[in-house]
Specification:
The protein contains 27 helices and no strands. It has 557 residues and is an all-alpha fold. The termini are far apart.
Length: 557
Amino acid sequence: MRKPVIVIFILLLLEAVSGCTSPVRRQLDCAEAVMESAPDSALAILDSIDTASLTRASDRALYALLLTQGRIKTYEVLTDDSLISTAVSYYEDHDPDSNLMKSLFYQGEILTNNREFSKAIIPSMRAREMAISADNPYWHTKASELISTLLMNSYQSSYSISYIKEAIECYGKCDRQINHRYCLLDLGVVYGNLDKYEIATDIIDSMCDIAREECDSNMLAYGLSAKYANLYRAGNLTESENCYEELKRLQSFYSYNIQELSWNVQSNISDSSFMEYEKYIRDNCNFSSAKDKSNYYNTKIIYFKHKNSPDSIIKYYDSLFSVLNNEVDNALMQSVVKAQKEYSDRRVGEEVKRANNLKNTIFIIIGFSILILALIFVFIHQQNRLKRSELENKMKDIIALSSDLKLKEKKLTKLTASNVKINQISETLYRMKWETLNVLCNEYFDKDDSELSRKMILSNIEKEIKRLSDKRSLDEIEKALNKYMDCIMIKLRSQYPGLKEEEFRLLSLVFAGFSSKAICLIFSLKMNSFYSKKRRIVEKIEALDAPDKKLFIRKMK
């Protein structure tokens, strides 16, 4: 009876104070004033407002925020964020920041209900940061608790611990004892999800003891539900059954979830318990999550194992794997931790950018001051610098001319030395050209005209030919070719390693300018054999795409 009187008094007070505002605004202010203490009354006020009268953007934004807030506070599970997004869009550019903080929080909660966790983390983190900046422990707590919830729902319990502990600490500061206790129970659930059953059980038992002492059946039911999950996962089936029986006695304060029902049937598998389970599921439950479906299919698998029905086992295994695969795919697509890290990195980047902008501004001011001083200095000393520059340019021209003269003198010296060397080489080659003829003439001069003398001359010619055909002479010819024909034999040997040594020797004589008959005499070949060998060598050279192929073929011709 006392609460409605307080609400009516607040409404009358607001009506008197806000006489100068529009009727719609007065209704919105009244709803906002009683939202925390009497959300059902606030929702009734909002439902009485004609939306056509919301002509101002500020009124539409506040209406969207309050209507969303009222529905959530009266335990309506919202999954459509289009209404609250209107408020977020408006308050992004308009005061007050407290309304933006609330709008972001409810947007995060709705997206969490809709299992869009990677989207929900951004507005939730922003709401938390704004609450911390405004030193508002209540909304700081709510945001931290929401972040912890969506991390748990996305299978990231290890990341949620710091946020749930933050919420516990803030609820203590806000002196909200009931919320503080429920938050501790949530911490026990998180530790249970991380398989830290001993810590989880200690926390949950302490809260359950308080609930029994104060006859708080709602909190006791919530605590027993969390304890039952921990005991069952830890394998303490006897204690978990006792906990379940105690939980059954609190049915008027608590609704079983599919997981608890499934575990109870799995612990006491029988035809009768399974049929009751099937009937209860069919009449009372809907599969709102992958967790519910997986527990249901797992219960069926255990039952049909008990019944030794392989076909049914395989059927429900397929269904279970399909659910799990879809959940894994969804978890991979909605990486909450990745989205949270990206958001944190972006925030850090923005802070760094602001710091850099301030630093850059300071540097610009300092630089501009230095520039002015430099310009003054330049103006004073301009004439001196011009004269000095002119003198330096003339000195540079003199140095450059001197360097050019020295360089040309060096080139001329090198050319003179090269010409002397070329003349010496040409003279040597010219003199060597007649060496064989000199030998033959000397022989002929020393002999008379007898038949014997001619035979001796022929014998000496044969010896000379034989001398040219030995390895030493051929090596000398090859060395001379490399020296005076740009290493032609070295290139030939490296580019055509498949040629035989005999073919290399033959080519060296061809490159040196020996006639075909001379080559035949040196290698004791017939003319036909020589041309056949030469043709085969040409074919081998043409078959391989070597860098100097054209040079070798040209020299052979």
